[in-house]
Amino acid sequence: MDSIFSQLNVALRGPTGTPQSPTETITRLSDRLAQATQIGDRRSTVLTLKGLSRDWKAEVGERALPGLVDVLLNDAELDEEIGKAVLDTLYVLCNVNEEAESGRGQLHTHIPPQVNKELGFKHTDALLADERVTHKLFALLAHQSFYLRLGVLELLLILLHNRRQVVQGYFLKAPVGATSVIAVLEEQRDRLRDEALIMFQTLVHQSPDIQKVLAFEGAFERLFGIVRAEGGLEGGHVVHDALACVDALLRFNSSNQSYFRETMLPPMLPALLLFPPSLKVSEEVPQAFALQFWDTPQKPANASLIVGIIGMLVNSKGGSVEETRTFSRCLVELGLASNAPTFLKTQALRLLPPNLGIPLPSIVVTPYMPVPGTNDEEWDRLEPASALDALVELVLHGEYNGLFGERRAKDGMELRAAALGVIQNFVQRDEIREAIVRAMLPADGSNTPPPTTPLLHALTAPPHSPLDIAAVTSTHLSCLLFAHLLRYAPRTKTLARSIIPQPNFPNTQPGGEFFVPADGGAPPPPPPAPEEEEEEPESLLQTLSEHLSLAFLSKNRADTSDQEAREWDRLIVGYLTLLIQWLYDDPGSVRDFLQTGGLGMLVEPINQMADSDPVIPGLCALLLGICYEFNREPGEITRATIHPILTRLGIDTLIGRITHLRNDDRFKAIGPDTLVLPYPNQASALPGVPGGGSAAAAAAGDVKKETEAEIWFDWAFVDFWKSNYYTVVKGVAVDPNEAPPTASTCLLQISMRCESYIIPGQNAETEMLVASLREVIQKQSDEIQDLKRRLNEFTASAAAVDVSLPPFSLLSLLSPCTCIHSTFLS
Question: Which ranges form a coiled coil (predicted)?
Answer without folding.
Answer: 770-797
